[in-house]
Predict the structure.
Amino acid sequence: MVSYPHQRRFWVLAVRCYMFRNLLNKIIYLLLPQRCISCGRFGEIICGECLSRLPRENNPYGAISFYSYGNPTVKKAIWLLKYKGCYSIAKKFAESVYDELIEELSEHLELLNPDKNEKVILIPVPLSKERLRERGYNQAEIFAGELVKINKGVNFEIAIDILEKIKHTPSQVSIKDREERLKNLKGAFRLNPKMKDGIRDRIAILIDDVVTTGTTLGECERVLRRGRPRKIIKVAIAH
């Protein structure tokens, strides 16, 4: 397909406008008084009381996750984190689920060798370069980073250079059929050849914001297994 100069200028301008709007949203959320998206009280974007009342649900897709994405408060919170740069959402979710996550991982944490200062590697599901440039951040990476902060680096370390997304794909949310989702992600991820030994014999946790059908986490897990980790655990905020 032929690309004309005026078309290229249009798309460059469109991307810059999107990035400026994204930056503006972040500034607004930092400067304006926060109101809870659930109860409307001033103070926090989602207050601890409302967060504690959100129902926990089991995840049928082989991942540890904590909330139902069908819950309006959860859906709005993740939308704000994912598209509006509201980083405080990631911190609130991390604080809320941390103790439960540690309990879920307890038997794995016991296997860590303290003499070698061994830690579990948290691997956020990566974005393509195009998506990262468009959005300006990876919401899964921000959530994983908050878990490491709470843990104070005792058991966890984050690695953003082991797994790469090398193919820009349409959003999985826009694809309803599971087989089509699998085709959409085929060849989208790779193990960084410079870091191929980075997870050998290590316990790794794949982190995402939402698991819908499990195809994204499943494809990432398949690729990571080429690095011969000891164990791969999948974790998401919601499903």
About this structure: The chain is about 45% helix and 15% strand. The longest helix spans residues 5-31. Confidence is low (pLDDT under 50) at residues 1-8, 10-15. The radius of gyration is 19 Å.
